[in-house]
Automatic annotation (TrEMBL):
Entry protein name: Molecular chaperone DnaJ
Biased composition (Basic and acidic residues): 31-48, 59-79
Annotated keywords: Chaperone
UniProt xrefs under InterPro entries: DnaJ_C, DnaJ_domain, HSP40/DnaJ_pept-bd, J_dom_sf
CC annotations in GO: cytoplasm
PANTHER family linked to this entry: CHAPERONE PROTEIN DNAJ, DNAJ HOMOLOG 1, MITOCHONDRIAL-RELATED
Length: 314
């Protein structure tokens, strides 16, 4: 009878994803059949460790287990509300999961950008690779494959569909969810190398290219927009770019350089719904090459010195 996977791996239900992977690594190496030939107990222990990791090593499956929706063997319960426990699930923004290649995949829980199938390479070489999820050659799972992909800033923020050709010549369709951040990971289940126990996964770490105008901080977007001296003094309407296109912005009268205007809901989409804000920093631009009329006006302007603010403590 299967045991609680946290107990099998010697962990608390509050363990982080990294702690789960670390515990699995240690136990899998200790009990791997190649290290313990003809040892039935070690083989059974390896299978138990692998089965436990199959449940809580995958963020999606772990959440179902923590909610009581599946049992210790990974089977769905008839009514999870009757099986409520005090287990706690951890979440994060570490990545996204896609059910397979193509636009049909959608955002999911965080997927670690790590090839767990190579944890035995330093001990067993090629023989051990791909056995992380099985008890023998007949259940060897194909290796996971990792890639890195550069995408444009606006594609990452607004979401996009990309058809990319991997180094091995394989073509994959990727759905980049709106609000995607630099360094996050796309997981395509079953698109890795094939094996007798099923195909591995593909993990794509996304590198977001910088944008010449926009800067992202969390879910908020920042830009710097030039305005004329006339617009700064008299106020008016200007056009400012946003990640969804140009919008009209009202500049208040007597706006100094450095004034920041907030455009609510014009930032990056949030996974929880809604969007961040965009902040527009105004910068007064004087005429290139000078302007004689402006110089004469400033010379005769009696209130010029009144606009200077005193330095603190002066």
């Amino acid at each position: 009878m299967a045991r609680n996977p946290y107990i099998v791996l010697g962990l608390s239900p509050k363990a982080t994803d990294a702690e789960i992977r670390s515990a699995f690594r240690q136990l899998a190496k200790k009990y791997h059949p190649d290290r313990n030939p003809d040892d039935k107990k070690a083989e059974d222990k390896f299978k138990e460790v692998s089965a436990a990791f199959d449940i809580i090593g995958d963020p999606d499956t772990r959440k179902k287990y923590d909610r009581g929706e599946i049992d210790d063997e990974g089977r769905e319960r008839p009514n999870p509300f009757h099986q409520w426990t005090q287990r706690e699930a951890t979440g994060g923004r570490g990545g996204y999961s896609q059910a397979g290649a193509g636009p049909g995949g959608g955002p999911g829980a965080g997927a670690s950008f790590e090839d767990l199938s190579d944890i035995f390479s330093d001990i067993f070489g090629a023989r051990g690779a791909g056995r992380a999820h099985g008890g023998g050659a007949s259940q060897m799972r194909g290796r996971d494959v990792r890639y890195r992909l550069e995408v444009d800033f606006l594609d990452a923020v607004n979401g996009a569909k990309k058809r990319v050709t991997m180094p091995d010549g394989k073509t994959l369709d990727l759905s980049i969810p709106p609000g995607f951040e630099d360094g996050q990971t796309l997981r395509l289940k079953g698109q890795g190398e094939r094996g007798p126990g099923g195909a591995g996964d593909v993990y794509v770490e996304v590198k977001v290219k910088p944008h010449p105008l926009f800067e992202r901080k969390g879910d908020d977007i920042y830009i710097e927009t030039p305005i004329t001296l006339k617009e700064a003094v008299l106020g008016g309407k200007i056009t400012a770019p946003t990640i969804a296109g140009d919008v009209t912005v009202n500049v208040p009268k007597y706006s100094s350089s450095g004034t920041v205007l907030r455009l609510k809901g014009r930032g990056a989409p949030k996974r929880s719904g809604g969007a961040g804000d965009q902040y527009v920093k105004l910068k007064i631009i004087l005429p290139e090459g000078g302007d004689a009329d402006l110089e004469e006006f400033v010379k005769s302007w009696k209130g010029a010195e009144k606009s200077r603010k005193d330095f603190a403590g002066a």
